Amino acid sequence: MSLFCIMGNTSMRYLLLPVLILSLLIAPVCSAATPNHRNEASSALERIQKNAPPDSLYDEYNSIIETFSKAELLWEQNRPDDAENLFRLVLLKSSLYEKKFDSLQREPLAQPAPVSFRPVPAENPSTTIPAHMPELSLSPATAPSKETTPPATNPVPATSAGQSADDALRTPGTARMIVGNKLTYSVRKGDSLRLIGAKFGVNWRLVARQNRLNPKKPLKPGQKLTINTKRIVPKIVQDGIVINIPDRTLYFFRNRKVEKALPVALGMSTLTDLVIWQTPTGKFRILSKIKDPAWHVPASIQKEMEQEGKAVKTFVPPGDDNPLGKYALKTSLPGILIHSTIAPESIYTFSSHGCIRVLASNMEAIFNEVTTNTRGEIIYQPVKLARSDNGLIFLEVHRDIYDRHKNLQALAKQLITKNNLELLVDWDKVNASLQRKAGVPEDITGSATPKHVQTRSNQTPASYPSKPDFKTASPAMAIHPVSN
Do 188 and 275 belong together in one domain? Predict the structure, then answer.
């Protein structure tokens, strides 16, 4: 049958029209590109991921990521021709996206009203202390902690009060929400320091030090351990998921409240010309929910298996030996899953090949609550700042595991000064917290009170040394409980 005969049929004509248009659009890209467009598509994706997408382009941004993810999957399945078509489509979509993005950047934007991190607490604070969270009430640092054996499904209690509308507009890394508790845990049979650290999302070495334990000696069932699971929420969103890489925590929000704060394992710090195992940052959405997932082993991991002398696997069916566990959430970030794990002690470490691992019990819970198209974002904030309504200031410092910041001291100073708090903190405490990198909120409040200082100084505090005096840093201080 000739093309003219086909075009004579009205219904077929409408079916072919989109195909012809798409062919015309892709043709210029094809003619100018090299035989293999995978590297070009990867570079294009890397370019657009350098900046967060504006709301008007969010769907197009995710469409590009999804297309690239599908192309990568086809490539790994040894279907290069099909993958090539999608890589070309990524190039076309990226080109259109970048033009629209540049156009929006050139448009004059209305300047938002300045939002300050006020040194004087509001007379009518918008947040209250949940009645069932006595550990978050304002009390002396020496107050006794509550003895509790938390359920395994929620190792990091994460309850918060509603937040004011300006919370999301504050400087990144600052917040008025602290979740978690300081609690007493009763050791169970089979527990180890590493496993307890994984369950609660805490540094097991810090647990050993604070409880004066010898890490080489096994724990005894019934042994009491003091554990601090408090953490500053790095970013507040209306609904969805926020994952902060340095604190290895997944925050799940509903109505601007943290429903869950779950410890996770993230990508290794490996970064070479040949392989990148680091977990990427960027916005995403949940594309699909998979129960009993099969694992199509990426070519890069197959190569690693070969180099380590292991049996090379290309496919792992669902089952007890599948590293993806029983539940997986596929994100729009290429190759990145949020999934359960069969290696529980790996949680709260940087040991994956980029994916986000979650304890099996926690993953089942969040799998049932998260829906497809849930939005999320992976961020990188090793230094976080918070202030309570009565003026106490807290700093939380983690290792810069991916070496994204040259100077954490400068980053902390920037957060403090941008929030008009430089005259209200004790800089010796700031330096000590930066030295420890304890990964928990530490009180850095100085002797000055909000009544003493109500204006911002443009001068660097005279007491702020050019370099932290790490030699005189005190041991890990007790954490003052704080309200939202």
Answer: no
